[in-house]
Structure formats: structure tokens, C-alpha cells
């Protein structure tokens, strides 16, 4: 029985399950999700293999907010501890020829304990797969990646992922180094957001030296640090104290004001970023106001999600933003992701083209 395996942050399985269920229903590929609390993944089964495959092929991964990565699993395997490779080679379903191999596991304590096993097992398995022509001898990123997702040393799902419709990072996690000069760890959230929500071409086009930016809820300055590092000039709005090191760059103006009332003094603000801890609907309305008024071109912001039904909340907020911009006849793009560095929140990118 084939299924779609989706990786998510531990504790967000029900949101990830609600999201894939929603999209599957929209595409009329009906099925059901299996999700164990705190397991770090969700299994989604349609009622036929053809539908599971069609769902995997037709849904754009970028539409999924809570999934870090996903793949089409052809079989769930119980491996012989003494000959795992032989158990894998008994696969009955037809795998496409793959150009790379990914051995992965859930982002949980139990999952992380499988890391050294996966590292050790990877090389002998790769050799055997090349010998049996399941895998190309030379890595080929244009071909699907063969996926093994382990929940123990003897249990895994085996399948493949489309390298153009998923997350290429190991376990779907982009590892970033914390810059020692940054004043807070949340700097990694904005760094990751630029890396994940924009592609390289967009980063080159949208993040340009000398741009003006506004950071709402800026203190102590982790997000401002990312903007300053990209040679931008930043208006930092917050009643709290900003890190001295940032003020010394001469690129930051600190305004002790309410982020919901602040209006930009200049007409050439490119970026609005916002990390204020507030109700997500209130933050969304504020972002809509900025984009609709042309006070900024691009917005990157967090929606804090302390509630239970996080998928519903995000869905409502994104709809509010998209419909609000559409009603004004504004061409726009809105993308959202639950990033690795996000906890009880998701990050949204929005852009209006005029
Ligand atoms: C999560 S922290 C921001 C951390 C910051 N992004 C960083 O990387 O250092 C949230 C900040 O929002 C500020 N804040 C909350 N409500 C605000 C408001 N209405 N106006 C301005 N700042 C606000 C708080 O003072 C706090 O410093």
C-alpha cells in the first residue's frame, strides 16, 4: 500500500495531517492521515495507489505550510536485522531509477538516535543499489531521490521523492550557523526565511544593497541584524532596547513606538519585517494595510500560533491577506512555511507587484 510521508516538527502532526487532508480533498484524491502525537511525521493514504501517486505528483510542495519535506512511499518494510539490504531488495513495487539516496528519520529524540546507524548503513546500501541498477553510479539531481525513512533500525518506508517538488535538505532541515555578533537567536528565523521562502534568483532580485526596511517588534535586533548584514538601512520599531552593536553601524534608527500605529516616514521602503507577539489575525491585517497602501514592496512576518487548530488559523489568515489584496486588484504572491527555527509560529512572505 503506497502512502505519502510528510515530515513535520514534533507536536505539529495534527496540523500537518489536517493540511494534507485539505489539499487531497480539494484535488478529489480522498484518503486518510495517520499521525501519532510527537512522532515528527504523518502518513497519508488515498484509497488507491493511483490516487496517492497522483496526489504526490499534482500538489505543489510549496503550498504545504507544515510539511518540511515529503515523499511517495511505495512500501512499509520490516527489515531483517541480519540482512537489511536483502530485505530492501525484495521491494515488489516498481521504483523509478533514482539519482541519489536519502536515509532519513523523524526530528525527534528517538529519530536522532538513528543518525549514526543511517550514516553507517548508507554506503553499503548505496553500493548494493548501484549494483542492482536501482541507483545511478554517478549522482544525478535530475532523477528522483530514493528515500528510506526509518523509525527504528528495522522499520522504514521506502519510496522516492521528486527533487523539484520537495526540500533538498537532509531531513528537510536547513542547518544554519548562529552568527556570534547577532543579538538574539531569533536571527536564524529571518535568515532561514530568506533561504527557504525565496529562491536564489528572488534573493538576488529582492534583497539589494542600500534598500530601506522597517522592523516591527525589532528588539533586541536579531532580525534587524540580518537586514543590516545585507547592507540595508533599518527603522527598528520597539519600546525595548536595541543592541548597541547594531546602533553603532549607523544603519539603524530606533523608534520607541507602537508597531501597530507606526507609519513610515519615507516612500521607498522595500522590506517590512515583523516579529511582534500578537494575535495572528491582527498581524495579518497590519501586513495587508502596509502592502495595500504601498508602504512596502515585500513583507516577511511571523504568525504566532498558541492555539490548538493551527492549520485553520493559518488558512484563515492567508485567505484574508490574499483576498484583501485581490479585492484591491493588486497582483500578489503569498507563501508560508513552518520553518525549522520557528516554534509555535509560521513565517509568511508576501509581495505585491505594481
Ligand atoms: C519576539 S520579540 C522580537 C525579537 C526580534 N525579532 C529579534 O530578532 O531580536 C517581540 C518584540 O516585539 C515587541 N512588541 C510587541 N508588541 C509591540 C508593539 N505593539 N509595538 C512594537 N513592538 C512590540 C516586543 O517589545 C518584543 O521586543
UniProtKB/TrEMBL annotation:
It catalyses: cytidine(2498) in 23S rRNA + S-adenosyl-L-methionine = 2'-O-methylcytidine(2498) in 23S rRNA + S-adenosyl-L-homocysteine + H(+). GO terms for biological process: methylation. The active site is at 304 (proton acceptor). Residues 1-71 form the RlmM ferredoxin-like domain. Residues 184-277 form the Ribosomal RNA methyltransferase FtsJ domain. GO terms for molecular function: methyltransferase activity. Residues 84-161 form the Ribosomal RNA large subunit methyltransferase M THUMP-like domain. It holds the Pfam family RlmM_FDX. The keyword Lipid biosynthesis does not apply. Its EC number is 2.1.1.186. Its main location: cytoplasm. SUPFAM superfamilies: S-adenosyl-L-methionine-dependent methyltransferases. It is found in: Cytoplasm. Keywords: Cytoplasm, Methyltransferase, rRNA processing, S-adenosyl-L-methionine, Transferase. InterPro entries: RlmM_FDX, RlmM_THUMP-like, RNA_MeTrfase_FtsJ_dom, rRNA_MeTrfase_M, SAM-dependent_MTases_sf. Monomer. Catalyzes the 2'-O-methylation at nucleotide C2498 in 23S rRNA. Belongs to the class I-like SAM-binding methyltransferase superfamily. RNA methyltransferase RlmE family. RlmM subfamily. This is Ribosomal RNA large subunit methyltransferase M. The lineage of its organism: Bacteria, Pseudomonadati, Pseudomonadota, Gammaproteobacteria, Alteromonadales.
Amino acid at each position: 500500500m503506497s502512502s505519502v510521508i510528510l515530515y513535520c516538527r514534533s507536536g505539529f502532526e495534527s496540523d500537518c495531517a489536517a493540511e494534507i487532508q485539505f489539499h487531497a480533498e480539494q484535488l478529489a484524491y480522498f484518503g486518510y492521515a495517520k499521525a501519532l502525537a510527537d512522532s515528527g511525521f504523518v502518513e497519508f493514504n488515498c484509497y488507491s495507489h493511483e490516487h496517492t501517486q497522483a496526489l504526490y505528483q499534482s500538489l505543489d510542495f510549496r503550498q504545504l505550510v507544515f510539511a518540511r519535506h515529503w515523499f511517495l512511499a511505495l512500501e512499509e518494510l520490516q527489515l531483517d536485522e541480519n540482512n537489511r539490504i536483502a530485505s530492501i531488495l525484495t521491494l515488489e513495487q516498481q521504483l523509478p531509477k533514482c539519482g541519489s539516496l536519502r536515509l532519513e528519520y523523524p526530528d525527534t529524540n528517538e529519530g536522532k538516535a538513528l543518525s549514526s546507524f543511517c550514516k553507517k548503513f548508507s554506503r553499503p546500501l548505496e553500493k548494493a543499489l548501484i549494483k542492482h541498477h536501482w541507483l545511478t553510479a554517478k549522482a544525478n539531481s535530475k532523477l528522483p531521490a530514493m528515500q528510506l525513512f526509518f523509525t527504528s533500525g528495522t522499520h522504514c518506508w521506502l519510496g522516492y521523492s521528486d527533487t523539484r517538488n520537495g526540500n533538498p535538505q537532509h531531513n528537510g532541515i536547513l542547518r544554519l550557523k548562529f552568527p556570534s555578533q547577532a543579538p538574539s537567536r531569533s536571527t536564524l528565523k529571518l535568515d532561514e526565511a530568506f533561504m527557504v521562502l525565496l529562491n536564489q534568483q528572488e534573493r538576488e532580485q529582492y534583497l539589494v544593497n542600500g534598500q530601506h526596511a522597517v522592523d516591527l517588534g525589532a528588539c533586541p535586533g536579531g532580525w534587524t541584524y540580518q537586514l543590516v548584514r545585507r547592507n540595508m538601512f533599518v527603522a527598528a520599531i520597539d519600546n525595548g532596547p536595541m543592541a548597541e552593536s547594531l546602533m553603532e553601524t549607523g544603519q539603524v534608527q530606533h523608534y520607541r513606538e507602537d508597531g501597530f500605529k507606526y507609519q513610515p516616514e519615507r516612500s521607498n521602503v522595500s522590506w517590512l519585517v515583523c516579529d511582534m507577539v500578537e494575535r495572528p489575525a491582527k498581524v495579518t491585517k497590519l501586513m495587508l494595510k502596509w502592502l495595500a497602501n504601498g508602504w512596502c514592496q515585500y513583507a516577511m512576518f511571523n504568525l504566532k500560533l498558541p492555539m490548538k487548530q493551527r492549520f485553520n488559523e493559518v488558512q484563515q489568515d492567508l485567505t484574508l491577506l490574499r483576498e484583501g489584496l485581490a479585492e484591491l486588484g493588486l497582483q500578489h504572491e503569498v507563501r508560508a512555511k513552518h520553518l525549522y527555527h520557528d516554534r509555535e509560529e509560521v513565517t509568511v512572505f508576501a509581495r505585491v507587484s505594481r
